Amino acid sequence: MLLQSLLLGAIQIAVSAGINALLVLFAGGVSGFLNRSPRWVNAQRYLMGSVLGLLALRILNEKKPT
């Protein structure tokens, strides 16, 4: 029973590491594409600026605990 549990754990770790490696490679490819395109860089800048501005407004309008 112990050997079976160890084998199952090892298989889960191997599968997880493989999937994580694929995700890292995919994210790197997407990041490279987005950074090469000036239009995407500007869109990302305005989108993140809008998100951060909205977050600042939300924090500003929060009621403080008394």
Question: In words, what does this structure look like?
Answer:
- With 66 residues, this protein is mainly alpha-helical.
- It has one domain.
- 89% of the residues lie in helices and 0% in strands.
- It is built from two helices and no strands.
- The longest helix has 35 residues, at 2-36.
- The mean pLDDT is 92.
Q: What key attributes describe this structure?
A:
mainly alpha, 66 residues, 0% strand, 2 helices, 89% helix
Domain tally: 1
- Cα distance spanning the termini: 56 Å
Regions with pLDDT < 50 over 5+ consecutive residues? none
The chain-level mean pLDDT equals 92
- How much helix, percentage-wise, in residues? over 70%
**Whole-number radius of gyration?**
22 Å
H/E element order = HH
Q: SS-based structural class? A: mainly alpha
Strand content: under 5%
**Count of distinct strands:** 0
* Overall outline: flat
Biggest β-sheet description: none
Number of discrete helical segments: 2
Could you give the topology of this structure?
Elements: H1 2-36, H2 38-61
In short:
The chain is mostly helical and 66 residues long. Helices cover 89% and strands 0% of the residues. The mean pLDDT is 92.
